């Protein structure tokens, strides 16, 4: 995952899309200092969940990640992560999608698009990964966090073609 995030960082900086958004990048990296395992455990206790393995891996690489362009959400620092209904309750009220009731907002809290983790509703279910925005007809679902970032990179590469 770290190599994928580093590649996204370099490609985004190469495209110079960040400067047009008024974002400043240092060290060719869109991420932040990683969190510790203990910080993850504290956040899991606060939210009463056990994060999926790939999101835990992401946090151990970077505590948040700047959006690489103006259509991808930035990922929040762990201390800002919370349930969607606590941060943006109007989304739950407007859309009334059952999965949003327990959605955890991990990106895009103050942006036009959000990235959500949907906890499993039963032991046989798995986590869901959604990009959600008013301009998307419904949610965009990804198989996992790596799948999302791979598609982000693909879009960046195609943008440069």
Structure description:
With 161 residues, the protein is an alpha+beta fold. The protein contains seven helices and five strands; from the N terminus they run ααααβααββββα. The protein has helices at residues 2-15, 17-20, 37-47, 53-61, 84-87, 89-95, 145-159, and strands spanning 82-83, 104-107, 113-118, 128-133, 140-142. A five-stranded antiparallel beta sheet has the order 1-2-3-4-5. The longest helix has 15 residues, at 145-159. The chain is globular, with a radius of gyration of 15 Å. 30% of the residues are buried. The mean pLDDT is 90.
Question: How does the SSE layout of this entry go?
Answer:
Layout: H1 2-15, H2 17-20, H3 37-47, H4 53-61, E1 82-83, H5 84-87, H6 89-95, E2 104-107, E3 113-118, E4 128-133, E5 140-142, H7 145-159
Antiparallel strand pairs: 1-2, 2-3, 3-4, 4-5
Helix pairs in contact: 1-7
Helix content: 25-40%
Structural class: alpha+beta
Can you summarize the main beta sheet? 5 strands, antiparallel
Order of helices and strands: HHHHEHHEEEEH
Q: Write down the overall mean pLDDT.
A: 90
Strand order of the largest sheet: 1-2-3-4-5
Poorly predicted regions are none
Tertiary shape:
globular
Number of strands: 5
Strand content: 5-15%
Number of helices: 7
| CA distance, first residue to last residue | 24 Å
The radius of gyration over CA amounts to 15 Å
């Amino acid at each position: 995952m770290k190599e994928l995030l580093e590649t996204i960082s370099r490609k985004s900086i190469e495209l110079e899309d960040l400067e047009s958004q008024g974002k400043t990048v240092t060290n060719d990296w869109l991420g932040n200092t990683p969190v510790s395992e203990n910080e993850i455990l504290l956040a899991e206790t606060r939210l009463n969940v056990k994060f999926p393995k790939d999101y835990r891996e992401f946090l151990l690489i970077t505590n948040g990640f700047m959006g690489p362009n103006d259509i991808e959400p930035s990922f929040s620092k762990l201390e800002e992560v919370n349930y969607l209904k606590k941060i943006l309750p109007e989304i739950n009220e407007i859309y009334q999608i059952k999965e949003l009731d327990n959605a955890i907002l991990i990106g895009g809290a103050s942006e036009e698009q959000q990235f959500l983790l949907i906890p499993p509703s039963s032991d046989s279910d798995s986590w869901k990964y959604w990009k959600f925005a008013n301009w998307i007809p419904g949610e965009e679902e990804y198989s996992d966090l790596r799948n999302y970032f791979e598609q982000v990179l693909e879009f960046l590469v195609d943008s440069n073609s």
